[in-house]
Amino acid sequence: MRKKWIILFSTILCLGCDRDEMDSTEQLASKTAHLTASANFQLFWEDDFDGSVLDTTKWSRITEGTPDWRNYMTTDDQVYEVSDGYLYLKGLVNTDTQTDPRPYLTGGVWTRDKFNFTYGKVEVRAKMESAQGSWPAIWLLGSTSEYGGWPDYGEIDIMEHLNFDNFIHSTIHSNTKSSPSTKTVNVNPGEFNTYGVEWYPNKIVFTINGTPTFTYHKEAGADWRQWPFDRDFHLILSQQLGGAWVGNVDSSQLPVDFVIDYVKYYEYIPAPSPPSGSDQYIKIQMNGSTTNNWSHLTEVTLINDGTQYTLPAGHNAPAVLGDGIGVNGSNTNYYGLDSDGKLIINLGQGYEFDAVKLGVYNGDIRIYEDVEVSVSADGNQYEDAVIKDIENFNTFSFTGYKYIKIQMNGSTVNMWSHLTEVTLINEETEFVLPAGHNAPSILADGVGINGGSSGYYGLDSTGTLIIDLGQEISFDAIKLGAFNGDNRTYQDVEVSLSNDGVTYNSIGMQDVKDYRVFY
Q1: Active site residue 129
Q2: Res 333: pLDDT
Q3: CA–CA distance from 229 to each of 37, 154, 212, 259 (Å)?
Q4: 26, 123, 129, 155: which is the annotated catalytic residue?
């Protein structure tokens, strides 16, 4: 929960940044949306197009071919440009039909035979101009043919844009497809967006600006017909013109540019099991919804210190952690809830985790209301449930903090006793600790119980105060207030949190004047 506040706070701080620090809110969203989710991915390969020529150790220009998308491909320099940190792939009218009789020329690049990969995350930040017959795309294609020709060897279309549409297509191609296998998502094609895909051994997740748009699942017992996505693919960036799908080309609207800012590939690293702990059972109770049926729970993920451990998919939740399909039921790719909307997951042993993330099917903008999640060590006694609505996904946080350490390191003018307020904030609700010398041990109104009624919190001669809350309490932020009757500024105030009073995790250092919130 606290990490979500950190992301929000960073967004506010960056709103005034110039382009050298951040190009747009879209770029920030892409960077922050997977701060925890990217624990299973590690940056391995990238191209920022910072030079003046195409890096031929990474890319090859695509030549003419028989499929529609290769009708006008050429290696000619006039459809390729690398400048100002961008790659431009062009579609234009061919002015030299004596040398090449085709009416149009287009540019495309691929990594085939230079960089092939199995699983991982791909992100491409790009924008495109629109024209009748224009068909830019970002996609992955199978690099080997042991399963046969297209579509048997598989295709993952991250982004395809047609004509003047205000939406893009993301699509899976294989011999036999499960549903859903395609999705359209509204975008402004003339603005930069980060188009991505996360390719796991058991699912393929499409994203725009870091936000998932839809997921294609591997079915239980699937062979190559439904899941040829178990071996090397390569990446293709292509500006295409014309064809049976996109329609005829209006030459008066050419040229068009497909502009790519960067390409990043993150290697997939299978998640290990979380550390051993006491909680073995997770109970999920879905109580109400605007429109839904309870079978549409698609993800259950354990989170421990920001690292995610996703349970395998399948009907009737899995009994063990691991990649692949759930072991206890049919191949629906959903977790099975009973007719009352309840599911109890037996993890097989106890694990330590801070939160549980639930994902739901949301192809028609469903909202799953009043979802309860609780955990248990023995399957009998469950902790108090955390209740939230879910749209796409939501995180249910269980672990709180018992100790707060405040260290006031420096000040223009102050005495360390001038700390007047300590307030816990949880989902925007404030809980004020009682005032008094030598901090309180419990939440309550009134004067602190461990010292004199000075109205201040007592810091020692080194400016340190440790607050024992008496129990673990969940909160998103801490607000500190300080006496400021003569415009004092308390510099380099540091706040740290701990579960055991021994190991502390700093959540920030800031100056305090009147008050300051630490996320």
Answers
A1: no
A2: 56
A3: 21, 7, 19, 28
A4: 155
